[in-house]
Amino acid sequence: QVRLVESGGGAVQPGGSLRLSCAASGSAFSGYTMGWYRQAPGEQRELVATISSFSSTNYADSVKGRFTISRDSAKNTVYLQMNSLKPEDTAVYYCRARYSSYYDYWGQGTQVTVSS
To answer: What is the pLDDT of residues 66-105, one digit of tens each?
Structure first.
């Protein structure tokens, strides 16, 4: 069992930055692919970025060059550094830990609001 707790969300003006954190409890964190997803009101949940156990990263086209995902295995934590934020980045951001279709966990989400 893996428990994920997100933090770092909030309100920011366009062009600003935020760093989200996702702290994982449980075993074998280093073996999981970690990811950030987001869901805006009335929209489906979408992938933002993932990082594999080997630290290989993948980004949605909409965030490439602005967001950076990273992980610290010593702290069992994954981060999402978000720069040059836009109003369309407004959403609830969810952390995900996936090892297989059976070992697949989600956090509760953290709200990010980008508005002037």
So the answer is: 999 999 988 999 999 999 999 999 999 999 999 988 899 9
- Determine how β-strand 10-12 pairs with β-strand 46-51: unpaired
Are 50 and 35 in contact, with CB atoms under 8 Å apart? yes
CA distance between the termini of the chain = 40
Cα–Cα distance between 72 and 67 in angstroms, integer?
17
pLDDT number for residue 29 = 79
What is the mean predicted confidence (pLDDT) over 18-47?
92
Quick one: which H or E segment has residue 69?
Answer: strand 67-72
Cα 105 to Cα 5, 30, 84, distances in angstroms: 11, 14, 29
Q: Which residues contact 29 (CB under 8 A, 6 or more apart)?
A: 2, 73, 76, 97
Q: How many helices (H) and strands (E) does the chain have?
A: 0, 11
